[in-house]
Write a structure and sequence with these properties.
The chain is of the alpha/beta class. The protein has two domains: 29-191 and 320-409, Rossmann fold; 201-307, no CATH class. 28% of the residues lie in helices and 25% in strands. It has ten helices and 16 strands. A six-stranded mixed sheet has the order 9-13-14-3-15-16, sandwiched between helices. The radius of gyration is 25 Å and the shape is globular.
Length: 427
């Protein structure tokens, strides 16, 4: 990707295992079936605040949303469209040139390379290739309004050129007309699951529904919840807390609004309440019963986050999806973040992948990650984000027995905040 958010020049997050790195080959990597090279099960991204970690995840999300929604978005009035791409704004040329997105991926033992360039909602270029017996074959290329199609390998695109608007990806047009290859690419993008807001209610709703219907997930969740002193979860029907109009300030408009909200609550009927069950003990420390807590009111933010994330984590592990998480360690104990990583390294039979941003240096250990799994974001003197892995570190070769966490905090790899002595401002 390039010229998007804080990325001016093109950067690449590479999930291919580096040839010189030999550690954890049988644990942290799996074999690409198309070309027999190593692929990484996870990547950890470190860097100072505002260095670009979240922007990297946002850029991946932007590409995914553009692929999945560009056809629909083009049907909406321009002022109401949601697929806005912010270029690098801290350079005179940034707003004048297109943003660049490209991804290489494997789907059903076929390797594809797909990308596009877009500026002010206009697609400047687009391309799709696939690899057959180690040879890359063009499926289609696009330059402005000119689209060239491989009539043998991409028959589904023939005749769709006039139907493709300049603000719509040709890939999505072909998919709308039931194109076989184009829908495979679309399906792969659906395999990316991005978690960025810890208290997003949709995560909890998904995890609760899975907990109620999937016995394997229930066992998986309980094994984690037990470590948090929760025996298990249950749900019961509850009712919304009624609004007491008398406690609302005597403003006619305000009271009418809350009265309307109250009517809506009543019309929706009962809602579901999550209960977390804990052991209760007597004075002799003998368990006497199990009592319910209101999960959302009485459990910690970290406990809620870990359960809310367990559904998407399980989904990715059993289906071989890609999970991308911003600030994985936020509100979580270091042992819990380490546990999540271990799910992908040790208990990962479907070749799922985890990509996450973090400040937790407790994870930055040589007994957890290979050198090619550790990535850094750092801004240069003109506020451009650079992205590089520990194996690509420019200043000196990093040994596989180095203390990654200590060397990082000492500033050896860069990507740490520069903190001046603020107390001098008060002297």
């Amino acid at each position: 990707m390039g010229n998007v958010l804080s990325f001016n020049e093109i950067v690449q997050l590479n999930m291919t295992g580096a040839t010189p790195v030999k550690e954890f080959e049988n644990i942290n990597t799996f074999i690409d079936p198309t070309n027999k090279f190593k692929l990484l099960k996870s990547a950890a991204i470190y860097g100072a605040n505002s260095s670009g970690k979240s922007n990297l995840i946002k850029a991946i999300s932007i590409m995914q949303n553009f692929v999945l929604n560009s056809f629909r978005d083009a049907l909406i009035e321009k002022d109401n469209r949601t697929l806005n791409i912010t270029p690098f704004l801290l350079n005179d040329r940034g707003i004048e040139k297109p943003s660049f997105f490209e991804i290489i991926f494997i789907y059903k033992e076929k390797r594809y390379r797909y990308g596009f360039e877009v500026h002010n909602d206009i697609i400047h270029s687009e391309w799709l290739f696939f690899v057959n017996t180690n040879k890359e074959i063009t499926l289609f290329t696009r330059k402005q309004k000119k689209i060239e199609i491989n009539k043998r390998s991409f028959k589904e695109g023939i005749g769709l050129e006039p139907k493709t608007k300049d603000n719509v990806l040709f890939l999505t047009v072909a998919a709308q007309f039931d194109g076989q290859r184009s829908n495979k690419v679309i399906d792969w993008f659906k395999k990316i699951k991005i978690l960025s807001i810890p208290n997003d209610p949709s995560y909890q709703l998904y995890s609760v529904n899975l907990y109620k219907t999937n016995e394997q997930f229930r066992d998986f969740s309980n094994s984690v919840l037990n470590s948090l002193d929760i025996v298990n979860l249950s749900t019961e029907e509850g009712v919304p807390v009624p609004i007491d109009i008398n406690k609302i300030p005597p403003d006619k408009n305000l009271r009418s609004i809350f009265a309307a909200i109250g009517k809506i609550q009543k019309s929706q009927g009962k809602i579901e309440k999550i209960l977390s069950w804990h052991k209760k003990y007597d004075s002799e420390k003998n368990m006497v019963e199990k009592i319910p807590f209101d999960f959302n009111l009485q459990e910690s933010e970290g406990t809620k986050k870990i359960f809310n994330f367990l559904g998407p984590i399980y989904d990715c592990l059993v289906n071989g999806f890609i999970l991308i998480v911003d600030e994985l360690d936020l509100r979580l104990h270091p042992l819990l973040t380490k546990l999540i990583v271990s799910f992908f390294h040790v208990h990962n039979t479907k070749n799922a992948q985890l990509i996450f941003a973090s400040h937790d240096t407790n994870l930055l250990k040589k007994d957890i990650f290979r050198r090619d799994q550790i990535w850094f974001t750092e801004k240069n003197d003109v506020a451009e984000t650079d992205l590089f892995s520990l194996i690509e570190y420019r200043e000196a070769r990093v040994r596989n027995d180095a203390s990654f966490d200590k060397d990082y905090l000492k500033g050896r790899y860069g990507a740490i905040p520069f903190i001046k002595d603020v107390m001098t401002e008060f002297e």
